[in-house]
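Study this fold:
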Amino acid sequence: MNPAVRCDEEHALLRTEARRWLDERFPIARVRALAETDSGEDPADWRELAALGWLGLCVPEKHGGAGLGAVHLAVLLEETGRRLLPCPLLSSTLAALVLVQSGSEEQRARWLPPLVSGESRFALATEPRHVWGAALADRLVARVGEDFAVLDARATGVEPEVVLDRTRRAGRLGRVSAGPGEKLPASAGEALARLTPWACLALAAEMAGGADALLTLTSAYTATREQFGKPIGSFQAVKHPLVNVLIGVEGLRSLVYAAATALDAGDPDAETLARMAKAKACDVYVFAASRAVQLHGGFGFTLDCDAHLYLKRAQTTRPTFGDAMHQRRWLAEKLLGPAP
């Protein structure tokens, strides 16, 4: 299990352009302002995401997508995580992946083009609660008992759900039942088995971006905040936790791109690497956020400190598709066998 990580000029160009657009579009003041609105987002941003081709990044070209792979997805989500993107791109992407991996050809041809163009908004619902992007979705790719199905979101009676992270809204489904002809041919178990490595990778990439943003934010603050006539960043007690965050972020990014490369190559160890990345991401992101709050001193404990936005994103993302303990149990059974 040691795939050569593949990142070339095309990936670098995607990163540069994504970071430039996100920096211009989502300064932290705008993210805060959107978080205070009823919907939590601006519909114009969704149209821009569609125009950029990000809604169909991993959708085959014959269905209107870009037909790109896991490394491209990791690059893009690392950048959106860095900016706390207040749009349900991740939920839409996972819904598209379920359709690509487990839908029939007729279902792909029917649902993927409007998803990619932004004409119809999709969200993934593996459980009735905590469905990211459900409130404004037109369609849900939802688990219905032992099946997955494409549902009319309005017919499910979506209700807004109060969540910790207001930069990423969630909803709760009321009536979840599949009508005739809407079920996907694959069972829920089969669809989730195909999706889970990609979901773990996507979440870990987004969390890596968030943790890296926190490192930049905190380093900049400690380089200017002075105590005893010196920047507090010059003190060992401040340097050590920041170095630990740096080591964590770099290790996490290595795992993310190893998993992405393995997924693109069809490597049988891809799921193991993706779950390792998700486990590490849970630890690294929460650690980076808690240290950011601490190292900002008294200001860090106020909601005016931007570190709080990242801390809430880290805590709400952590349990999605399994927290660190869940992933390590899976890895232990896979690598060491069942417990005696």
In short: Strands lie at 122-125, 131-132, 139-144, 147-152, 159-161, 170-172, 183-187, 226-227, 230-231. The longest strand covers residues 139-144.
